[in-house]
TrEMBL record:
Assigned keywords, A-Z: Membrane, Transmembrane, Transmembrane helix
SMART domains: CYCc
Record organism: Marinobacter segnicrescens
InterPro entries cross-referenced by the UniProt entry: A/G_cyclase, Adenylyl/Guanylyl_Cyclase_3/4, MASE2, Nucleotide_cyclase
Official protein name in the record: Adenylate cyclase, class 3
Amino acid sequence: MSGFVSTPDTSRKSRADSTPEDAPQAIPPLPDFNGRVLGAAAFCGIIVAGVVDGIFPESLLWLLAAGVFWPHTILFLSRKLGADRQPRIRQYLLLVECISGGLVIGLTGLTPVPSLAMALMLMFSCLIVGGLYLWFYGTLLLVAAAGLVVGLLGVTEDFTTPLLTSLVSLAGTGLYICVTAFYTHQQARILLAAKTQIQKQREQSIALSDKLSKYLSPQVWQSIFTGERDVRLETRRKKLSVFFSDIKGFTDLSEEMEPEALTELLNNYFNEMSEVALRYGGTIDKFVGDSIMIFFGDPSSRGQKEDALACVSMAVDMRNHMKIMRQRWRSQGIRTPLEIRMGISSGFVTVGNFGAENRMDYTIIGKEVNLASRLEQLAEPGQILVSYETFSLIKERIMCRDKGEITVKGFGRPVAIYEVIDFRRDLGPNRSFLEHEHAGFAMYLDSGKIADNDRKAILQALEEAAERLRVEEESEQT
């Protein structure tokens, strides 16, 4: 005797969990056990009617006992095999029912109306639970099982179906299909309401995450919302390039302007400088007063050399962009000349989440951070000062001027610093800076810093070096 599964596959956790509490609550889906009980009752009714009408032998009444135990047997197997966690187990059990149903149809001798009624209930269950795929294989197994029994026992001699058997078959099948369809429809409504609610919540989450992203650097926000980084207190050592900048003359300007106008000017400055920083891939750490702190190399890095180059390139771009902003401010009546000064240092720092479990700040600490801040304070208006570590990473593409050494707290020895001039490609033929470095030869020339009384000595040294190279070249040729 065969029972039935009456509802589509909704055992997956994602669907069950996705139904929100405020979604319209319709009648819950018809459970598998109840569906099998209803199907088994229809089968038993058809068998009893057939025996009463005399078209089925009384020996088939043993199927009534099988019909009573079948739903309980399948329920036991479902729990044992974990059908609620594995939807395919549920489909396999339904295929087993198709085989058993085919055997019952074969035992009835393929009496037309009862056979079609029982086959229709099974096929309807397959179509709802597994779609056309399960329907096809279920039909195939049912036909094969029925054909096997018919091949052994033969078909009925009289293909006419009495009225009672026909009515019970049609009534049982109709009741099963109508009840199943009703519960399936109600379930579809629940799923549709849940889908609508999920879509609404998704849109709200996107809007909220967009608002929250304003408080984080895009790289940090991206790494958190994509799951690449956990939000927990953790730090690590990493080599980064750190940038500090502030506006020279801002304090004087704050005494001349109204707070509202000053706030608008400062926000405009931060907005445009942030766009420059993001264009070069910098992670904006914080804004403090008129100062900006940015670092390169975390959460994403292109390599130490490229990170340092991107940091210095950003600084040069900011310095050039400041000229445009000064003209714009001048047209707005702001006559105080505002200049940006910047400091950059490269080295190992501690980067990560600092703070408490309920309030974290993604930032960096270390002596290189202090050095970058110190260089920014020492820089003249419009000047970019970098540490020796940064200079060694960028010197092939950016011209720098040696500014001597400074003493910085936390460093055992004086620190060599350099001033960024410009990209080498942007320096014209009249540039005052020349630098050449080869094996056995190194030259750094800043003609703008050479005093008149030193010029002759330098020329003499260069001429002696050139003469010596010529003599060695002529001796090699001979």
